[in-house]
Design brief:
Blueprint (H helix, E strand, L loop, with lengths): L6 E3 L11 E5 L10 H13 L3 E6 L9 H20 L4 E4 L3 H6 L5 E7 L4 H13 L4 E4 L7 H4 L7 H8 L54 H15 L3 H4 L12 H5 L5 H9 L5 H22 L11 H9 L11 H5 L6 H13 L4 H14 L3 H15 L6 H10 L21 H7 L2 H14 L5
Parallel strand pairs: 2-3, 2-5, 3-4, 5-6
Antiparallel strand pairs: 1-6
Amino acid sequence: MIEAQRFQHLNDRSPLEKGDYVVYWMQASQRVFDNDALLFAIENANAMHKPLLVYFGIQKDYPQANRRHFCFMLDGLEEIERTLKEMNIPLLVHDSGVLEGLETLYAHMALCVVDRGYTRLERVWRSHVAEKAPCSMVQVETNVVVPVESVSNKEEYSAATLRRKIEPMISYFVDNHPMIELSTPSLNIQMPYASADIGKILYGMQFSVDTSECPWMQGGQNKAHSVLETFINEYLDGYAEKRNDPALSHCSHLSPYLHFGMISVVSIYNQVKVFDLPDVPVFLEELIVRRELAMNFTQFNPLYDTFEGLPEWARKSLAFHEVDRRPYRYTRDQLEKAETHDRYWNTAQKELVGLGTMHGYMRMYWGKKILEWSPSPKEAFANALYLNNTYMMDGRDPNGFAGVAWCFGKHDRPWVERPVFGNIRYMNDKGLERKFSMQKYVDRIEKELKFHGVGK
């Protein structure tokens, strides 16, 4: 049985017996298996003796999403369509707006179920539908281990404060709930409009930033589990020691799949937890504590994507040092093109633009240098967030917003005061060279860019 803390009624209406079918609005959890929102929808469709329709809306103007993101997402959506069909469940895809497609379904809804999202636009969508839908609307939280409000009802200061609260709760929320069959055949539902051809949606789409696709990163639940299997077999052992070394890429590579909800974090936990390795607690700290701290941030800080959302001490310190002389200044265009004096930073930026990813340790260094080289802290914050959201495959994500904010002091403490940075934690190229073989990192990225045909 799904834990009661995972679902929330978004309006005070009742399910409608006269409704034609239950609708599961899939948005944040783009998978079929280990998806409590879909399971909840099937359970209720069976109880009401109703067919089930899964709806997915495409928002072509989704902020800062572009070709690489849509291509990755549509890979997964085609897999979802095939899998649902095998379960006798239809997938209705509307490619002219999320809300526009749902509005046509209101007259047919017996119950509306939706998965939970944590960013502003996702919350606005759900509030709008909850107000307009004629029936009960239930939100199921299935992309975290512990539901956000079960851990805390306020913005947490740091990982340490969240960790104390979440760790005792994890064991209660890590049961995998087996899929059940839908009892009422649904493939013959008379839908109010034809489903879009998923394979053709990308054609003709126009983007404000025309990034390359990233075909070496294939979307979908099957691929997500393949990536997890590779991580467990090849990278889990040694993860604690090697994960921070940019030359090794000893990472899980799961963040794009977690961003699109193509894999369940509970499933990852259960598959990793069984190994008796010192690396397991380190990995689970990042998977649960750090990741769910980011959800807490976007849920409880309405300014999570702005400079004003940073801690007061950080804003004050950066404001005091805003007049400090910057040894280098770069425009957004120069940053985007990796035209700085710093070859390590340039390599990280080329990895971002060319490959749609960036090594985690370099992501921290990358953000710190943008702060150091921008005319003002506010401009630096805006530039870092723009580049992260535009090019990172897992951009526009709570982890991305929290990660950029961390470079400016969020979830951190004041450090020794210095020019430009004030009390913000400092990083430089000499520190990279002391810890790692940075030439090997440069060589690794150049080799990968060349292999994929995106290097200069």
